[in-house]
């Protein structure tokens, strides 16, 4: 057991909390930690002091195998409790594994029962993996709210060192994971049918080579097609066909040697070692009886056997060569081959791409991303753009509290606040700018063309920027109008906007007053306006600046890459610049570790990008001055020496 795992056990045992949480990403050794915790708790409290629960029967069986104690699924345990057939007692430890798959109501009941009995509950899971199909989010909320949650971050599963870090990056939805997997040739791309075929061929080759391998796809149609193909090729390679077949629930058939999966818990169907058939168990068919019942052996180290009745086979058994991400969670194999489409969620991708010890390969089907996904560019779709969209698309449930916060995040983002501020400004300053242009030297016909939407909007934004840089619009506008003729201009407003931007990109010569930019980025609307309009603008100004400051604090606290180099290079001068950069990143949803990300997509973004870069340059110049003052040259020392 590692030092990190040992510390986690100690913190849980000594926390004094009634509900504790243990977080561990895929392959981090949660099982080892839980086993050590069970041993420590039992040594202190005696036999029977540890109770194991999990949201599914298959997960509870896996937990039982890991802990060496009888475990149950949460629904069954609550049913037994409601009928007075089980209970908790003071001092017991209730370990709930795969807690992200448990719905909030279930966790609330369990923790309430435990609190009443004086027992302790430990929720174990990974908030980045798959969530409950019912209302969930409780586990993630606890993790988010507690600063001292024991977390296992040392990954033990993967053979390759780089994949340990890459899997953590992937779990967070960090787009840098795409580059990591790409560099190590773990991403394929092509048309959907090509990728499904490529994943299948690679999976089949691994199986033929004796590797434990898993084939994952999200489409029910693809799962069935791959299962039928796998069975057909198996029969062909075996060189013999067993004419006795069982008809399965998915419309396929199975015979001797096929892999099948059971889809429903049934405690009446017992195994030879005292267990029972569970939803999600995978089996190999060993015989088809004349009455239609199917003899099977479970595909795990124990290899337990049972006989599935014909009616159960017809209703609850499918071929099990290809599986979905939900079926893959909890499985560890040598290699994983994963078909990824634009509808894949971040959690599904993370779970699927962390099943293999030696290799995990994504076969990215290219197609136009759907409305749930965003891509960074409007260029042709590539594996990178599809994966970018997948990482932005979380399928995880949020708690009620987190939902409120997410709504605030959506409506309180700088992109939304800036849009509101500019909308108010456009309305407030409309008549003023119309009148200003009327007196600028334009003809009546030219003026009418300029103030018509949509041409007028970008021009007023340019005028607002010029005024924020302390240009006198009463002088500036007539000057740019008279600078050259406008008779041959197709879009007079666009020409004027270009001229204003060119002249007013910097403050007037000799002006040392800082531009009136909200968070160093967004021009502040100036001029006469009503008290109500001024208040509305000031409110949004304060919200934008406070959010930018909060984003900087969070980024620095979490060690985000974009905050490191500037602080190292610029020292104390790195004061105002980060709020401008943070505002830019939030407004344009920059995900890259680079300060301002890639190239701008629009003229407005390009101007904002330049302002953010300018803030960095100013900080750099100030930092150089600070360093020169703090560390004068040797020559300067010599001159000043007596």
TrEMBL record:
Gene Ontology CC annotations of this record: exodeoxyribonuclease V complex
CDD domains: DEXSc_RecD-like, SF1_C_RecD
UniProt keyword Membrane present: no
Any one Pfam family match given in the protein's UniProt record, by short name: AAA_30
Signal peptide limits: none
Key words, A-Z: ATP-binding, Nucleotide-binding
Keyword Nucleotide-binding listed: yes
Single GO molecular function: single-stranded DNA helicase activity
GO BP terms in the entry: DNA recombination
InterPro entries: Coronavir_polyprotein_1ab (IPR050534), P-loop_NTPase (IPR027417)
Designated name of the protein: AAA family ATPase
